[in-house]
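Please check the following.

. . .
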Amino acid sequence: MGQGIALAVLGAAGLNGENLLQLLAESSLAYRSLRLLDDDSQLGRKLSVGDALLPLETYPQAEFHDIDLVLACEPPTAELVQRIGEQGASLIAPASALSGAQPLVAELNLGRVSPRKGDALALPPAEACIMARLLSPLHDELGLHAVHSHWVRSVGLQGRAALQALAGETVQLLNGKRPKPGPFPQPIAFNLLSLDSRSQEQDLRHLWASLWGDNYLILSINSVLAPLFFGDIVSISMVIEQPSNRAEIGQLLASVEDLSLHAEDETGTLTTADSKDGRAMRLGHLRQTDAEGRCFSFQIALDAARDGFARNLLKVADNLAKNLFISYS
């Protein structure tokens, strides 16, 4: 690969890293070199990227002088962020690792920033990114007064350790044993857990205010954790400022990239399984819930970690590569 950028991926062995590497292999982002990094516990492992099998390096020994762009799939430490910047590499990382940085959603506000080589760019959490993408066309055309969302979340959104805990608890219970303590406050296998979603709500409020300067939109997020490895469903109820109808709402949602409007099967069931047309998110059960045309509800099936974080990370990286690095073609 003689053309393209020199790329490094931090947290490559985690679920976000796995999602990113799968999407990277399918993308048009050209790179002349690719380094995969994770913590010391992953030393000696190799990961596949398309047809290539690449070794994992560890953070403490990593140098970034020869790297153009670093993609962080997990929040890097402050020391690592500083080292990457001092060695001249650009960084894209979760906003929680970059204090004060404006979180970027590729389709919404990437054009508002003018990054330079060596800058660090922040990404919002998966749920906030998804909600902002879904709601922005409705905000632009009709105005939003209130939005209430209810998430049924899979454990995959919480990382690989959560997946392993669910698998272990399931085996233990099926064998008639008491589950060992894990990362959840209560056993998750064959169970639903109500979650405290105040941090996700705060993330969305912060992102929404940075996008539109709107601190008055009424927002709420409620979540339950389901014993599913992957796949999430979010139910959204909203009150809009200008009266509309189901057809117009559907057309506005159709403008959201990677969203399929015709995902319900012949039984009317919306599932978290991959849609046949290859799009990432599936919409179903769009309804008008009042007579005046100001209240609507709908559901979205998706893999929030993949669709809300990894895809956004790759899109921001692709844009940065095309606009910042001369070697990219």
